[in-house]
Design brief:
heterotrimer; A mainly alpha (361); B alpha/beta (360); C mainly alpha (310); A: 361 residues; mainly alpha; 15 helices; 2 strands; 3% strand; globular; C: 310 residues; ABC transporter involved in vitamin B12 uptake, BtuC; 13 helices
């Protein structure tokens, strides 16, 4: 009989080994899936994991990895704080949208003024504020009325999407766009553009913000009282009360930080890679970031690595689509598998597998 | 390996496509790329671009290599997908969604030797052409049929988002429904989505509940037809012929047919005769097709509709011909005057007779 | 503006059809949550059920086989979640999200050769003279079988949870898995069964979309219905009949806003499209504040990982 025995301390060795194990298992299972679809599994795996990093056009893809990973990491860092404390903000996608709308609206309001020193910082503040406000709705409903934050934050994603459509068609529509939906392109408005900081690297202010967030979150969790409160609340809400944690305040703070960071990610995206507010501006970063947060074990450095790994599967997956004709759905299923395996092997970190009859069973 | 690729990368970054040889110089097959916004089997917009692409591939056989990427989100992801294709050696890339407009222009600037064709947009460059279909021509015919076939004098229109393309369709349908039947009223329902079969079905049901008996849809799924079939009402194929619903409820259809255009443009690249153009093709050019008129449509109505189709194709009739007033009663087109393409491209008003207002 | 053109009988009948997919998914999720499991993969299970049901119905020509296959497909997929969360003790929120991602990908792979086909029609049940009763006949007696099946499932779940010993055990497991385990109940087995039931119901809900309400197969056709089902469970404060009301209310708001537009009422479309979500949030707030009892009705062990020796 196979039995699990809880480790007194999570195993350090396994916590490093399990992600690698999961990736290997995914390669095997994913390879089987690709083979069923009639594609060369080795070539497909190689295209997904190797090409973007070391292939012929790696010089281009490496920059794209940062563009893709930046918003994922930024959002996931915010979410991880709440998740550690048992506060479930599932609606980062909505906060991301609202950040983009608020930020872009500020930028567009100044058009065509040229004072970048004023406009761009204001946009950043507005972006963070937009996400923050959207996250405050579930936070305050949770603290005032004990309403489930998972559902409210999630429902607000749909509201934000409708709001986005109405903005793209109405208030923020490009007056010179001859009636077509979508705002002016912020990339072409120097005072508001979030362009590449070093040409060819793909690094823009969003990537910088993500790195800063990783560092700050690390410091917060390890050195700061708030980090301690978050960890205690996550491990034992009862103990947290004795430790002087104000649960309502913690909800507001955690939701506020995660909303603000999601809003920032939205602003950097709309002013940079995306360029404009359009009906379909959002492409699921807010949801994917939840996965990134868990893949990274809610640890700041882990999240950074997980964000890069997921970005790799996206970009490599696109390459596999374009070069090998793999359907997009196969990539989606492949990512789902990667997650399943990561979650499954995680058990090895916290539990010891014992074979044979134990004294307790 | 690593070192070599780094060096190669540096060189390519410096020139980024500038040194790509022209097609005539190389003997490899011409590489034709497509960027799709949806899945290739969405049953509507993307599927029809893809089937047209496959027809084009069939036409040229081994002379070309077809590459495509589906489900590409608009924005940064689209730019990457296009760059990827251009780096991969594509000679011409078709980008098939309005939202790909700015990404197409951005990527095209980096690859001056690659041709780009953007569907439904308006921004061109030396190596970026745009193309779109005059769907309003087809909607004139389906609108006429709807007006002729309604018994309740109420027809319905399911709109996605209030953009010029959709508003043109509504106006064109309505004008010609009135031509067939001056009593006709049109109810418009906006579903705020391009794709949600369940919501499209609900919207159709809501129109039926209002006494509407012919429904025109500007969303791509067959959901409305399935609901109409159950209720014994009439509708039209949209994007595809949707002949599986003929002879009723589908009494005709408006078909997207991009294949002739793709063949012509790819041929132009082969002949090194490609240049940036702004093409807006209609029934006459074969980009907009009218499906066989079936079901309970009386012979004289059918003949009249087919005549309208042929007149439009021949250029002797323009669906927006005066006298036409705007919804508020102000004059738009005088007797015999036809709308100019500029106004049509940015159409943001209803014509006289339509109730309700365009959401903004 | 002419509200008189909206016929309440037809509106009610339409809303029952529109609500059935989310009702089925929600009642399944209710059972899973009552056992203490939060499965956020409803959307993935629904869409998998939609394609499994569609394939089976097209291949066999029998909608009944389609619905059976949908239930099996949903349940099988849910077992991925069950095994991960119950044996590998993974986090339920993350696993549920992964399940949705995987289900969306899997379903579109399975459905690639089924696009554009028409499934065999699902007829309405013939109630004879009952269907001709004014008003009630239109509202209640002119539907297909699944509408009634969904209501029967709600009734069965209600009776099961309230009156049976097995239902009591299920609730005990959801309230306190530690205590239930100490009493000798098989926590993991109970939860796996509840997850499978949730998967089967979600599968049925998906198949209702692909076989009845739309009827066709298109990628991503559930378009968020699974998430709504999750909200409806909380909205119904984990009570079967309230879940029914919640689902009908949500379907009702959706149908009503389209009907208002069709009737020519000047409405701001984007804001009306938001309204079902906003109203759901509002009701969530009212439900969870108020007497505070509804909130307490949440299973105490919801979402918590169970390990026998911990």
């Amino acid at each position: 009989m196979i039995r699990l025995e809880k480790r007194p301390q999570p195993s350090k060795a396994w916590s490093y080994a399990t992600p690698l194990l999961a990736v290997l298992l995914t390669m095997v299972a994913g390879g089987a899936l690709f083979a069923i679809l009639g594609k060369d599994p080795l070539l497909a795996i190689r295209t997904i994991f190797w090409e973007p990093l070391f292939g012929e056009f790696a010089w281009y893809y490496r920059g794209q990895l940062l563009i893709k990973a930046g918003p994922l990491v930024l959002i996931a860092i915010g979410l991880s704080l709440g998740f550690r404390a048992g506060i479930w903000n599932i609606g980062a996608e909505g906060q991301y949208i609202m950040g983009a709308i608020f930020g872009a609206a500020v930028g567009l309001a100044f058009y065509p003024m040229e004072a970048r020193w004023l406009i761009f910082p204001l946009m950043i503040i507005a972006g963070a504020f937009g996400g923050f406000v959207w996250a405050m709705i579930p936070a305050l409903l949770k603290t005032k009325f004990n309403t489930n934050e998972i559902l409210v934050s999630l429902l607000l994603v749909y509201v934000a999407e409708q709001f986005l459509a109405s903005m793209a068609l109405g208030l923020l529509r490009n007056p010179e766009g001859s009636g077509f939906p979508g705002s002016r392109n912020l990339q072409q408005y120097p005072a508001a553009a979030n362009g590449e900081l070093i040409a060819g690297t793909g690094l823009h202010w969003g990537g910088v913000a993500a790195l800063i967030a990783v560092i700050l979150a690390y410091i917060l969790l390890n050195r700061h009282m708030l980090g301690f409160q978050i960890r205690v609340t996550g491990e034992s809400p009862r103990a947290a009360r004795f430790a002087g944690v104000k649960p309502n305040l913690l909800v507001v703070v955690c939701m506020g930080i995660s909303g603000g960071l999601a809003g920032l990610a939205g602003l950097f995206e709309v002013a940079g890679p995306a360029g404009q507010i359009s009906i379909d501006f959002n492409s699921g970063y807010g949801f994917t970031a939840i996965i990134v947060a868990f893949l990274g074990r809610l640890h700041p450095v882990g999240i950074l690595l997980a964000g890069l790994l997921l970005a790799l599967t996206y970009i490599g997956g696109e390459a596999a689509q374009a070069n090998l004709g793999l359907p997009a759905a196969a990539i989606q299923a492949f990512q789902g598998m990667l997650l399943f395996f990561l979650l499954a092997v995680d058990v090895l970190t916290n539990f010891r597998v014992r074979i044979g009859k134990g004294e307790m069973a | 390996m690593k070192r070599r690729s780094l060096l190669a990368g540096g060189a390519a970054a410096a020139t980024l496509g500038l040194v790509r040889p022209g097609f005539a110089a190389s003997h490899a097959p011409l590489k034709v790329g497509f960027i799709y916004v949806g899945p290739i089997n969405d049953g509507g917009w993307t599927q029809h671009h893809h089937t047209s692409a496959l027809k084009m591939k069939e036409h040229f056989g081994d002379a070309i290599e077809l590459v495509y990427q589906e489900n590409v989100p608009e924005g940064a992801d689209a730019e990457r997908a296009m760059t990827q294709m251009a780096l991969g050696g594509a000679n011409i890339i078709f980008t098939t969604s309005f939202g790909f407009m700015d990404p197409t222009v951005n990527v095209a600037a980096k690859f001056p030797n690659v041709k780009f064709e953007h569907c439904t947009g308006y921004k061109t460059a030396d190596n970026v052409g745009v193309y779109s279909a005059r769907f309003y021509e087809g909607r004139a015919v389906t609108g006429y049929l709807a007006g002729a076939m309604t018994k309740s004098n109420k027809i319905g229109y399911i709109g996605s988002f209030p953009i010029p393309e959709v508003i043109r369709g509504i106006n064109s349908s309505f004008i010609h429904a009135r031509k067939a039947n001056p009593e006709v009223e049109m109810n418009v329902v906006w579903v705020s989505t391009w794709f949600d079969p369940a919501k499209e079905a609900d919207a159709t049901q809501a129109l039926l509940d209002q006494g509407v008996d012919v429904v025109l849809a500007h969303t791509d799924s067959t959901a409305p037809l399935a609901v109409l079939e159950k209720a014994g009402a009439l509708g039209f194929g949209q994007a595809a012929d949707m002949y599986e619903y003929a002879p009723e409820p589908r009494i005709s259809s408006i078909i997207d047919n991009w294949a002739p255009y793709y063949i012509e443009r790819v041929q132009a690249v082969m002949d090194e005769a490609w240049e940036s153009q702004n093409n807006w093709w209609g029934i006459g050019d074969g980009m907009v097709g009218i499906g066989e008129i079936t079901g309970p449509v009386p012979a004289e109505v059918k003949a009249e509709a087919e005549k309208m189709r042929d007149d439009i194709a021949a250029g002797s009739y323009h669906p927006f011909t005066g006298p036409l007033n705007k919804q508020d009663g102000s004059a738009w087109l005088a007797e015999g005057e036809v709308a100019d393409d500029g106004t049509l491209a940015g159409m943001n008003f209803y014509v006289e007779g339509i109730d309700g207002s365009i959401p903004s | 503006m002419d509200l008189s053109t909206i016929n309440p009988a037809i509106l009610l009948a339409s809303l029952m059809i529109a609500s059935t997919p989310i009702l089925l998914a929600a009642i399944g999720e209710l059972v899973a949550e009552k056992s203490g499991v939060l499965n956020l993969g409803v959307e993935g299970m629904m869409i998998t059920g939609a394609i499994c049901g569609f394939i089976a119905a097209v291949e066999t020509g029998s909608p009944t086989m389609g619905f059976l296959a949908a239930a099996v497909g949903g349940a099988v997929l849910s077992m991925t979640f069950g095994i991960l969360t119950q044996f590998f003790l993974s986090n339920q929120v993350a696993t549920g999200l992964a399940l949705t991602l995987f289900g969306l990908g899997l379903s579109s792979l399975m459905g690639q050769s089924y696009v554009g086909l028409k499934p065999p029609p699902v007829g309405d049940i013939n109630f004879g003279p009952l269907a001709d009763i004014p008003f009630l006949g239109r509202v209640l007696f002119q539907h297909d079988a699944m509408v009634y099946v969904s209501i029967l499932i709600v009734a069965a779940v209600w009776a099961f949870l309230k009156f049976t010993r097995a239902g009591l055990i299920l609730r005990a497991v959801g309230e306190s898995h530690g205590a239930a385990h100490a009493l000798g109940y098989k926590v993991v087995a109970v939860r796996l069964a509840a997850i499978a039931f949730g998967g089967a119901c979600a599968g049925l809900g998906g198949a209702y979309l692909s076989l009845v309400r739309v009827p066709q197969w298109t990628e991503g056709m559930t378009a968020g219905a699974g998430w709504i089902a999750l909200a409806i469970v909380v909205f119904g404060s984990w009570k079967p009949w309230r879940v029914l009301i919640g689902a009908y209310l949500f379907g009702g708001v959706t149908v009503l806003q389209l009907n208002l537009q069709a009737a020519g009422v000047e409405v701001p479309v984007e804001y009306l499209s938001m309204s079902p979500y906003l109203i759901t949030i509002l009701v969530l707030v009212i439900m969870s504040s108020g007497r505070g009892r509804a909130a307490l009705n949440a299973p105490a062990s919801l979402g918590r990982t169970f390990h026998a020796s911990s």
